[in-house]
Amino acid sequence: RTHTLNRLELAVLWPVVYASVFRSPVGRDTLHDRLAGVRVGKEDLFRALSGAALRDLIVERDGDVWLRQPGLERMEAEFRMRRRATRELLRAHEDILAFLRRRPGLRFAALSGGCAHDAADDGDIDVFAVTEPGRLWRTLLESMVVAKARGWRKVLCLNYIVDATAQSLPGRDFYSAFELVTLKPIVGEHGYEDLLRANLWARAIFPNFVPAGV
User: Which residues pair with 110 in a beta bridge?
Assistant: First the structure.
């Protein structure tokens, strides 16, 4: 039987399909924040998840929401390995995270990329960073020098770094918004709120993701 999806069901399906491109699920506990373009309560979300229309398209297992597709069991096993590898990577390099937390001039830093999605598979710790005004190049240079001296050059990756006066992201699309709302802060929670305020356009894409104070 074919079901016509309503706006809420499509909003649920969108992030699940997007995650499937990376052979990953969306955590049930984070799905509400990632509903695309629809503001609803969690009860409405859970009712949609149990409905016939989505049951044909998604699978819920162990707190994860997957797109129903061939080879799903193999993908689940691979994802469990990547999740375990991510945790081991961060545990093995706690000294890198401690270094970032002590950096003067670093207003905000967060895990991004694979580490933010529990799916690191390349040995990198990707970091999104915002510096205090006028401190970007100094922070970047000092981090590169220390990383080389301590043997972190192939692990620590400041893959996006901006000055606090230029926090508005240039790409105003689903991809940019998704990366923004899935950051995992490690330095300066208040800085995350500032970053979100500088990118209020993302609210239209993920209207349920509204951290306190924003």
Answer: 128, 185
Phi, psi of 129, deg, nearest 5: -135, 145
Rounded distance between C-alpha atoms, residue 78 and residue 73, angstroms = 9
Nearest to 12 by CA among 79, 65, 68: 65
At position 117, the amino acid (one-letter code) is H
Residue whose entry in the numeric block shows the structure tokens 């990756």:
157
Going by the DSSP 8-state scheme, the letter that residue 163 receives in this structure is E
Predicted TM-score (pTM) of this structure: 0.87
- Token match 């049930």: residue? 28
C-alpha 59/C-alpha 73 separation (Å) is: 11
d(CA 131, CA 200): 20
Q: Report the percent of the chain where pLDDT is more than 70.
A: 96
